[in-house]
Amino acid sequence: MEARKRVVDLSLVLNSTVTAKARVKRAKEIIEDPRKADRLKEQECVVCFYNRPRISGRMISAVKCGYCDEEKRFANTDVDVLCEKCAKEFGLCKHCGADINLKNRHKLERKK
Questions:
Q1: What is the pLDDT along the chain (112 residues), one digit of tens a residue?
Q2: Helix, strand or coil for residue 74?
Q3: What is the DSSP letter of 92?
Q4: Residues ≥6 apart with Cβ < 8 Å to 45
Q5: Paired strand residues for 71
């Protein structure tokens, strides 16, 4: 089998530069959290809010909340693990279940 070669030309350089700049921008947003109020309103951690690719399969997905079993329907396969009520009650990211502020926890407690 012959090894594949990627031709390095101006088009590849320009495309790779745009992609790299977009990654740097997302990393900067994760660190600086410039839209924190919007993020907290959406009940998502910084990683899900700024870095989730938002690309998913097109199908109706029915999933149950990972805590209370409330069933939710989504128009695609990019589904949340918690309903918004439980996510707010415990201070968690509704999409991935992480602490909303990425703080280490030793037990699952309701938010005070």
A1: 889 988 999 999 999 999 999 999 999 999 999 999 999 999 999 999 998 776 666 778 889 999 999 998 887 788 899 999 999 999 999 999 999 999 999 888 887 6
A2: strand
A3: B
A4: 39, 93, 95, 96, 98, 99, 100, 101, 102
A5: 64
